[in-house]
Design a protein that fits this description.
By secondary structure, the protein is an alpha/beta fold. The chain has 10 helices and 14 strands. The chain has a 6-stranded parallel sheet, with helices on both faces. A 4-stranded parallel sheet has the order 6-7-8-11. It is globular and about 55 Å long.
């Protein structure tokens, strides 16, 4: 089947931290002009949908709120569908804003009925204590994602949401429900909301163990870019063979010709 829709990861694919991947705006504009459906699926749960749309626009990349699927939005959807009346402890203010926008009650104490672990660059020990105590009191334990790291400028990596999740797993002995990739929950939302066919959809990502694994498990085509976290040699060691391998997103229009 011909590819009609493209789902883009963001960090490591379109930008690294505050640095744009060269050629990304031009590539996406060309693909949009050719009629491809465009969606953005990121494990980053630190901010709202609107924030991420604005961030891409600052890079010169056109995006719309109904195309944007960060794990903060996925978390809000999951809680609304499964635990609509429960109070929630969150780490980052952006996650809090997304959940409050969905009508979810926030409880920033150990009395919360749900704990959501996510990336928080303002992490404090006090936050970990409150989350830990809520979980051992019986709170539902969710994690926006389990990424060990994320890419920023100059090839540097920083600890990801998985570092916070791991601290809570280790201390509580509890395993969280993961919302983000490689779990299919957010992908399924995109597929349902936009009536997409999986065999006509391409996933573009920089992490073999999340983006490419999810694509292969869910029947999507996959394109692996070398501008982010995973390296080419890891294809062999992981056994996760993408359909396409590119140095950067700038090559995608030519590959899809």
């Amino acid at each position: 089947m011909a590819i009609k829709n493209i789902i883009f990861d963001m960090d490591g694919v379109l930008h690294r931290g505050k640095t744009l991947i060269p050629g990304a705006p031009e590539a996406l504009a060309e693909l949009r002009g050719k009629g491809f459906g465009m969606f953005f699926l990121t494990n980053n749960g630190e901010h709202t949908r609107e924030y991420f749309v604005g961030r891409l626009e600052d890079f010169g990349i056109t995006a719309h709120v109904n195309e944007m699927y960060p794990s903060s939005y996925g978390t809000a959807r999951y809680i609304s569908e499964n635990f609509p009346a429960k109070s929630v402890f969150v780490f980052s203010s952006g996650m809090q804003d997304e959940l409050e926008g969905a009508g979810i009650k926030i409880e920033l104490s150990n009395k919360a009925e749900i704990v959501v672990a996510s990336l928080d660059v303002q992490l404090t020990y006090g936050k970990l204590v409150a989350a830990f105590q809520a979980i051992i009191r019986g709170a539902v334990f969710l994690a926006s994602n389990d990424d060990s790291s994320y890419p920023v400028e100059n090839g540097v990596l920083k600890p990801g949401a998985g570092a916070i999740t791991a601290a809570l797993e280790k201390s509580t002995g509890r395993t969280p429900i993961i919302i983000g990739k490689p779990q299919p929950y957010m992908l399924d939302i995109i597929i349902r909301e936009h009536n997409l066919k999986k065999d006509e959809t391409l996933m573009v990502g920089d992490r073999l163990e999340t983006d490419i694994l999810m694509a292969k498990q869910e029947g999507l085509k996959s394109a692996f870019v070398l501008s982010g976290v995973s390296r080419r040699e890891e294809i062999k060691t992981t056994g996760l063979e993408p359909d396409y391998v590119m140095d950067s997103i700038a090559q995608l229009p030519d590959i899809l010709e």
